[in-house]
């Protein structure tokens, strides 16, 4: 029987509804990041850099882009005869056929997959954080402490602690209690949703709670282990970690990449981030282009001005167009003489000439104020915007729009146009 010391289970099924139109057709871990990556590249690269060569990727929501991105794992050197990367979608069984109903239920439904490697330890990861982490040193900590479960935790500012699951640990890092989004937190160590379980402990907990509806790690499995006197320890992580779960944090994390000395460095030699790379021609900058602090993907043609932008591959920007503080994803075409401020434009969009975007006073979103905020204009994948229109802030557009969709030629701040399909 095959034996692996530690295998990883990567939860990549999330819909990521707080990213609004960015995730209406694509799972959150497959959303582009930093011009050439997708969010899931980070935990996958962490695995291979940490010497973990067996990764189960659990997909569920809109998995098409994700599946074709991961393929058989070649970019991460995870195309192995033993182990490697395996996509684990929900599937029909003779006794029942059901979607994954919670993070732990998803892992429970793949017990056989895990058992086939006879692991000593199982690493549970989520596919929607941007960070570099050596899981090997977390495993060493787990062994050193004789832990049953180790939870990676990161210090957060005390005033933000109530947004997270908080762990309270003693000086030896043994966990004494948990507080789920506490009003008055007694510690500032936030759980990162990264766990190492000793295999028997995980298996027993999953079996014990198999009938729990929406079975979840943070809500059910971890408390179950704690209440059954298992040894739980907190592994403190003190490096860059960002949950890119909202449009604001997603925009911010992209913008941080273009700082002179980025807080999160994609260019380090010793801890590379790998991704699926299409073979495309180099970028071209026209003689009258003007670029200040930007990441620009291969195959892009820029004839306008960019400042503080993250631009994916094969993006065209027309003459006289000015774009500031924006994220433009792969394959988008932007016409001439446009003015775009603080926008997130997803893959494959077509934007006409003389379009003004993000240039009005702010107003509250009529679609969903908790999602479409931060003064951003957000355009979903493959949308079309006609020439000569004005689009305000905190706006959302998805689908092929025409002149008729813009009364008086504008979409005021807080407005939205959504065509075809449901969007939050």
Unreliable segments of 5+ consecutive residues? 92-97
For the termini, the CA-CA separation is 47 Å
**What is the subunit arrangement here?**
single chain
**Mean pLDDT over the residues:** 84
Number of strands: 31
Task: Give the percentage of residues in beta strands.
Answer: 25-35%
Helix- and strand-based class? alpha/beta
Helix content: 10-25%
Q: Largest sheet, if any?
A: 12 strands, parallel
Number of helices: 8
Radius of gyration: 23 Å
Question: What would the keywords be for this entry?
Answer:
8 helices; alpha/beta; elongated; 424 residues; nine-stranded mixed sheet
Describe this structure in words.
The chain is an alpha/beta fold and 424 residues long. 16% of the residues lie in helices and 28% in strands. The protein has helices spanning 41-49, 64-70, 103-108, 111-115, 135-145, 199-208, 217-227, 247-256, and strands at 6-11, 32-33, 37-38, 54-58, 84-88, 121-126, 129-131, 149-155, 165-169, 175-180, 189-198, 232-236, 241-243, 284-285, 290-296, 301-302, 305-311, 316-317, 322-324, 327-328, 333-334, 339-341, 343-345, 350-351, 356-357, 377-379, 384-385, 390-391, 395-398, 410-411, 416-418. Strands 15, 17, 19, 20, 22, 23, 25, 26, 28, 29, 30 and 31 form a twelve-stranded parallel β-sheet that branches. Strands 1, 4, 5, 6, 8, 9, 10, 11 and 12 form a nine-stranded mixed β-sheet that branches. A six-stranded parallel β-sheet has the order 14-16-18-21-24-27, with no helix packed on it. β9 and β10 (175-180) form a beta hairpin. The longest helix has 11 residues, at 135-145. The chain is elongated. The termini are far apart.
């Amino acid at each position: 029987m095959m034996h692996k010391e530690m295998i990883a289970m990567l939860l990549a099924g999330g819909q990521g509804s707080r990213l609004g139109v960015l995730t209406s057709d694509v799972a959150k871990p497959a959303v582009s990041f930093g011009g050439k990556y997708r969010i899931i590249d980070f935990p996958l690269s962490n695995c291979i850099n940490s010497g973990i060569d067996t990764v189960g990727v659990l997909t569920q929501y809109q998995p098409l882009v994700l599946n074709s991105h991961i393929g058989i794992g070649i970019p991460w050197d995870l195309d192995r005869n033993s182990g490697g990367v395996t996509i684990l979608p929900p599937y029909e069984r003779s006794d029942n056929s059901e979607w994954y109903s919670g993070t732990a239920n998803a892992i429970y439904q793949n017990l056989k997959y895990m058992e086939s490697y006879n692991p000593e330890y199982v690493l549970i990861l989520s596919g929607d954080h941007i960070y570099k982490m050596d899981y090997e040193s977390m495993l060493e900590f787990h062994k050193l402490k004789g832990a049953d479960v180790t939870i990676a935790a990161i210090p957060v500012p005390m005033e933000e602690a109530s947004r997270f699951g908080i762990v309270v640990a003693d000086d030896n890092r043994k966990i004494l209690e948990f507080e789920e989004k506490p009003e008055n937190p007694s510690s500032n160590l936030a759980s990162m949703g990264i766990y190492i379980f000793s295999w028997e402990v995980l298996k027993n907990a999953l079996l014990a709670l198999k009938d729990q509806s929406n079975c979840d790690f943070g809500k059910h499995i971890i408390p179950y282990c704690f209440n059954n006197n298992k040894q739980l320890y907190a592994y403190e992580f003190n490096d860059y970690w960002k949950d890119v779960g909202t449009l604001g944090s997603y925009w911010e994390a992209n913008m941080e990449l273009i700082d002179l000395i980025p807080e999160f460095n994609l260019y380090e030699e010793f801890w590379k981030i790998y991704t699926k790379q299409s073979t495309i021609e180099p970028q071209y900058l026209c003689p009258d282009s003007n670029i200040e602090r930007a990441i620009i993907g291969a195959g892009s043609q820029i004839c306008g001005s960019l400042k503080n932008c993250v631009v994916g591959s094969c993006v065209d920007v027309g003459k006289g167009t000015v774009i500031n503080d924006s994220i433009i994803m792969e394959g988008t075409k932007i016409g001439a003489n446009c003015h775009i401020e603080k926008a997130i434009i997803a893959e494959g969009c077509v934007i006409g000439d003389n379009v003004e975007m993000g240039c009005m006073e702010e107003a509250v979103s009529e679609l969903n104020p908790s999602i479409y905020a931060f003064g951003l204009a957000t355009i979903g994948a493959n949308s079309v915007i006609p020439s000569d229109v004005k689009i305000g802030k905190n706006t959302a557009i998805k689908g092929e729009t025409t002149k008729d969709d813009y009364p008086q030629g504008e979409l005021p701040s807080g407005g939205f146009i959504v065509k075809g399909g449901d969007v939050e």
